[in-house]
Amino acid sequence: MTEQEVKDILIKTNAIMDGHFLLTSGLHSPHYVEKFNVLQHPKYTEKLCQAMAEKFKDAKIETVVGPVTGGIILAHETGKALGTRAIFTERVDGKMTFRRGFSLHEGERVLIVEDIVTTGGSIKEVIDVVKSYKAIPVAVSMLVDRSGGKADFGDVPSTALLKMNVETYKPEECPLCKKNIPITKRGSTGK
């Protein structure tokens, strides 16, 4: 699946939005990708996750992990495409962790999936959880990397179905705020 095909699906489902948005990172942006506008369509979600899985079909992945909330759906569909287990992390008292009896074994090969990445903070936390079990984070696969290539996961390689270089602003430097354009808060990680 090409980046243009991914973008076409996101546009068709109104997942790519324009306006003035407060991101989970605290930054402001004139663009937002509303993952649930595409994830509400199982046929598109399946197609996107099959494309994510295709890149790792020979990587001997044992488990796919995604952070709550959109990551649950992506982990499930990507795990289905790879024929693996799919689990997710959640925040407990602001800290990313496994719950519901989920765990990993030492040496387990894990693919971490995420929907939209701006700074990569949540993924770094998931990597730390995986490593705390002495499992191996093989790679990070993102639906959309909107960091402009700035999200860095150290020794864990990453790939994205769609790379977007979307401008973001600190609130005190935001030109949209200076123009008094109303802000919309979208999404939340519970940080």
Give the strand line-up of the largest sheet: 5-4-3-6-7-8
Q: What is the arithmetic mean of pLDDT?
A: 93
Report the structural category.
Answer: alpha/beta
Q: How many angstroms separate the termini?
A: 33 Å
CA radius of gyration is: 16 Å
CATH fold-type name: Rossmann fold
Uncertain regions spanning at least 5 consecutive residues = none
Shape: globular
Number of helices: 6
β-strand number: 9
> Please, how many domains?
1
CATH architecture: 3-Layer(aba) Sandwich
**Main beta-sheet annotation:** 6 strands, mixed
Portion in beta strands: 25-35%
Q: CATH class, please?
A: Alpha Beta
| Elements, N to C (H/E) | HEEHHEHEEEHEEHE
**Secondary structure: helix percent:** 25-40%
What does this structure look like?
By secondary structure, the protein is α/β, with parallel strands linked by helices. 30% of the residues lie in helices and 30% in strands. The protein has one domain (3-185): 3-Layer(aba) Sandwich (Rossmann fold), CATH 3.40.50. It has helices at 3-12, 35-39, 42-54, 70-82, 121-132, 175-178, and strands at 16-22, 28-33, 63-67, 85-92, 95-98, 109-117, 136-145, 158-163, 184-185. β4 (85-92) and β5 (95-98) form a beta hairpin. The longest helix is centred in the N-terminal third of the chain and has 13 residues, at 42-54. The radius of gyration is 16 Å and the shape is globular. The mean pLDDT is 93.
